[in-house]
Design a protein that fits this description.
heterodimer, A: mainly alpha, 28 helices, about 0% strand, globular, B: alpha/beta, about 35% helix
Chain lengths: ~650, ~290
């Protein structure tokens, strides 16, 4: 009776808020068991630690807990980390339900769209906030500690919370709503990442183009409020910044009101477009039932054996019992003992009855293995992988974004007279701009390619084929490299066209080719190979993304700290100049590229060695060492090659 | 001839999926029956060279399927229980890709083969259609088409009709029956008895990782002939039989319950009448009850 009453109350809508709470709680529980939030929290805390101890404060003599430095850190942190981490948490929540096919179970419950969407949104946003809050929390916790030469004001608490809410939580809310709406409506997480990438590019473009505008027009439309307080650090003394009490002016408050309004509009748009019923497209596809097709085509006519059990409950009940639905009984075939005709014969006879339509499968010659056959299989796999890569919807955004990014960086580009040739200057600028973008694309598409077979469940079909491991792995990497090559070619052509358009001719091919084939592509090859090795070793796509991101972050950070040894900078980030592109390529660069390629081959050998198709522990026990032995040998040889080329480079 | 000897497999979580499984299978269609979780898919994966056994041997025509995987894959066709296809490739591109991986190097030969396979599984009209738009039945047919590429000595078909509607299932049976020839061993793993009764000349029943019976369907029926009894009774009474009789199955029927029991030689009680034994009785007597029928 009590249960009935409770159910009735819920049905009347008395517990609408309870439904929302239930969805939020489910999201929190789900995220509690995910690796991603913990990794994010750890990364953010580590970031705070770095900026506390080795950031701008120590360089300029600012107090690490001054209002200005807290705000500056939060703005930088939000700009650098927000987009992709927000996409990671907020693009997926609803798509996940469709992917795990739990959607019909949820949508058949008395749960309104608003409860569902808001529950999903705020549940995940809360997790995001908690992760992000690790950054100011770490800064706050580090206040009592100080390194040599570090300035610290008396301990304070309020600014960390206040500025976090104003400068991090608010813009994250808007971006979270955009990512959530895009992911939910498109049901594609990749599209969300693409959108975030393009927003990033757009935002940088706007920041560059809005430089000359009055402060008000730079503050009002800027969700990150980058221009509100950060200025030239050398314009004032450290004491000035340390004593600066940050307050929010009317423009900033209006900006935050606009951010909240935009968030609400985004969620309202999502609510109006979101439907819990099947999409038309999917319904249409499902409508092409197997029965329709079978009837229309009448395939493999089976004559008498095509009879379908009609579910005669009196006589044939056994065949329907316990879900063991009996079908295709040929009653005529029963003999006196009740034996259901020679099993196998029934269908075969039926097939013979319809034998006129039977098509023989031609005998084919199969190659007997070996390198030549492996090469052919590699070519086949490469063609397929590239076709699959081309079908990635994210390319619609990534390709224009790459071109746009390069062109925006060159829009107001001025070449110092007599420094290098125009082509070298343009190619260098484009390569510099494209470098990180290209690496991100390489890491992302390698991850996608490496995990595609498992996600689409094609793996058992591929792995039971007699194709060698190297053809399966290398094809994925070569396809990603081809894509990168296409991107580089497209960007080079666009930049060359811009160079001509700006009247900085003539266009020389040499610097562009050097930029592409010496600066960019060896680095891309390394990133692809390293990403492949990470994906094979970690066996989890997102973990590999985070690891790659962390490695890149550490590289950039260590470079900024002055660690510029090229041996641990295989991508040559910031270790070349435009002058290297003009004329003959310096031996130093060539030696470094050789070293990079040797490292890449070592990563490939590692990926091959630990490829999931091998069961090397078992193979070892059983004495089938051939494949494993070759893999280990390749790993050792490539490691030696990397060391040798490293020494060669150091001497050069 | 497929020979499986003393095959054992224990997963890292401690589940013993296979316990000393031994089988001799002659060319033709062989059914492997068992309830969910019996170890069928584990056995199929080992046969398909995708999983390693802890102990034991698998040979097909003398070829060691565990130690020489690369050679084994050349004579293997595999249709897994769950599989996917690249949604953006067409049916033709998909088969062409698998044919190339299988080692069919000649382009003209490959074209002929792909055309014939598509014709055979009646997907010729959809050859240029992207696989992402295919129904379950069409995907299953494309799956069997890819398994038929090459010169199989062993064709492993794992739960091929799960999820298909009855009509599609019948047609799938016919296709499988056509495939079985005198050269190849076709292993059909299923928990659907009628799949085996319709297709296979020999069968084995696996339960909790052990082969509990191996027989022809005729032998299987003979083993339960005269032992199966049936009664239609009130529900409460039907439930009570569980304690006193070896109940093979109970099924709701017109508001009452139809009970089939196994009682070799003697009528269990007045309300029971002798029933025509079916392969399902045999199977259920092996898998549902605590005892065995050996």
């Amino acid at each position: 009776m009590t249960a009935e009453f409770a159910l009735t109350e819920a049905a009347r809508g008395g517990s609408a808020f309870a439904n929302f709470r239930a969805v939020v709680r489910a999201e929190l529980l789900y995220n509690r068991r995910r690796v991603a939030p913990y990794v994010m929290a750890a990364l953010f805390a580590a970031n705070a630690l770095l900026w506390w101890g080795w950031g701008a404060a120590t360089r300029y003599g600012w107090a690490v807990n001054s209002d200005y430095y807290i705000l500056r850190c939060l703005i930088g942190f939000t700009f650098m980390t927000t987009p992709f981490f927000v996409a990671l948490l907020m693009g997926d929540p609803v798509v996940r339900d469709y992917r795990t096919r739990i959607d019909p179970l949820i949508f058949s419950k008395p749960l309104s769209r608003a409860e569902y969407l808001l529950g999903k949104f705020f549940g995940n946003y809360l997790v995001l906030l908690c992760c992000q809050f690790c950054f100011p929390l770490m800064l706050l916790a580090l206040q009592p500690f100080a390194r040599d030469g570090m300035v610290a004001l008396p301990a304070r608490f309020a600014p960390y919370f206040k500025h976090f809410l104003f400068f991090t939580a608010a813009p994250s809310l808007l971006l979270a709503a955009v990512c959530f709406a895009a992911g939910t409506l498109s049901r594609s997480v990749k599209l969300v990442y693409g959108l975030v990438t393009s927003l990033y590019v757009l935002y940088i473009g706007l920041q560059v183009s809005a430089r000359g505008l009055p402060r008000r027009w730079r503050v009002l439309p800027d969700p990150l409020l980058m221009n509100a307080y950060t200025g030239n650090p050398r314009a004032h003394s450290a004491d000035y910044f340390n004593s600066l009490a940050v307050s929010y002016d009317a423009d900033m408050l209006l900006n935050r009101a606009l951010v909240l309004l935009a968030t609400a509009a985004c969620l309202a748009f999502l609510y109006s477009r979101f439907s819990t019923t099947e999409r038309h497209q999917r319904a249409d596809r499902d409508a092409v039932t197997t029965l329709d097709l079978a009837d229309a085509a009448g395939w493999v006519s089976g004559g008498a054996s095509e009879k379908v059990a009609t579910g005669d409950l009196a006589g044939g009940a056994a065949s329907e019992r316990r879900g063991l639905a009996g079908t295709a009984r040929d009653e005529n075939a029963r003999d006196a003992t009740g034996y259901e005709a020679a099993p196998g014969d029934v269908a075969a006879r039926g097939a013979r009855a319809g034998g006129a339509a039977r098509v023989g499968i031609p005998r084919v010659h199969l190659s007997e293995g070996g390198l030549r056959a492996g090469a052919r299989q590699f070519a086949a796999a490469l063609a397929t992988e590239f076709r699959l890569l081309r079908a990635e919807r994210s390319l619609v955004i990534v390709v224009p974004a790459a071109v746009l990014l390069s062109l925006v960086s060159l829009a107001e580009f001025g070449v110092a007279a007599g420094a290098v040739s125009y082509s070298a200057a343009y190619a260098a600028r484009a390569a510099d701009t494209l470098l990180l973008f290209l690496f991100a694309a390489a890491v992302f598409y390698t991850g996608e390619a490496m995990h595609r077979d498992r996600e689409l469940r094609v793996e058992p079909l591929l792995w039971s084929a007699p194709a060698p491991d190297y053809s399966l792995i290398l094809s994925k990497l070569a396809a990603t490299l081809l894509l990168s090559l296409s991107l580089v070619a497209l960007v080079c052509l666009s930049v060359a066209a811009l160079q001509l358009f700006k009247g900085h001719g003539p266009v020389e091919a040499g610097p562009y080719l050097t930029a592409a084939f010496v600066i960019l592509l060896p680095g891309v090859v390394f990133m692809i190979a390293a990403s492949a090795a990470l994906n094979v070793l970690l066996r989890e796509k997102h973990l590999a993304y985070v690891a790659a991101l962390a490695a890149c972050g550490m590289l950039i950070y260590s470079l900024n700290l002055g660690f510029t040894n090229a041996l641990y900078n295989p991508v040559l980030y910031q270790l070349w100049t435009p002058a290297d592109l003009a004329g003959a390529v310096p031996n130093r660069l060539l030696a470094h590229r050789l070293y990079t390629l040797a490292l890449a081959s070592h990563c490939l050998a590692l990926a091959h060695l630990f490829f999931g198709r091998k069961f090397f522990g078992r193979l070892w026990r059983r004495g089938d060492h051939h494949g494993l032995g070759r893999s280990i040998l390749a790993t050792v040889i490539t490691a030696l090659a990397a060391v040798a080329t490293g020494i060669l480079f150091a001497r050069a | 001839m497929l020979t499986i000897r003393e095959l054992s497999k224990t997963y890292p979580n401690g589940v013993r999926a296979l316990r000393n499984v031994s089988l001799e299978v002659a060319p033709g269609m062989f059914g492997l029956l068992g309830p969910n979780g019996a170890g069928k898919t584990t056995l199929m994966k080992i046969l398909a060279t995708l999983l390693d056994a802890d102990a034991g041997a698998v040979t097909v025509g003398g070829l060691d399927f565990i130690g020489r995987k690369a050679e084994a894959r050349r004579v293997l066709g595999y249709l897994p229980q769950e599989f996917g296809l690249y949604p953006t490739l067409t049916a033709e591109q998909t088969l062409d890709y698998f044919a190339r991986l299988k080692g069919v190097a000649d382009a003209a030969e490959r074209r002929r083969l792909v055309g014939a396979l598509l014709e055979r599984v009646n997907l010729s009209a959809e050859r240029a259609q992207q696989v992402g738009g295919f129904s379950g039945g069409m995907r299953q047919r494309l799956g069997i088409a890819q398994a038929l590429i090459g010169r199989q000595k062993l064709l492993v078909v794992d739960e091929p009709t799960a999820g298909l509607d009855p009509e599609e299932r019948v047609r799938f049976h016919n296709l499988l029956a056509e495939i079985a020839d005198d050269e190849a061993v076709v292993i059909l793993s299923t928990h659907i008895v009628s799949d085996v009764s319709n297709l296979c000349s020999r069968m084995a029943v696996i339960r909790r990782g052990e082969i509990v019976a191996s027989a022809t369907p005729r032998e299987a029926l003979a083993s339960v002939a005269g032992s199966v009894w049936e009664a239609t009774v009130e529900r409460a009474r039907g439930a009570a039989f569980k304690t006193s009789l070896r109940v093979i199955s109970r099924q709701a029927f017109e508001g009452r319950v139809r009970v089939r029991v196994l009682s070799p030689g003697a009528r269990p009680s007045e309300e029971f009448a002798p029933a025509q034994p079916t392969l399902e009785d045999y199977y259920l007597s092996l898998t549902a009850g605590p005892g065995r029928l050996n």
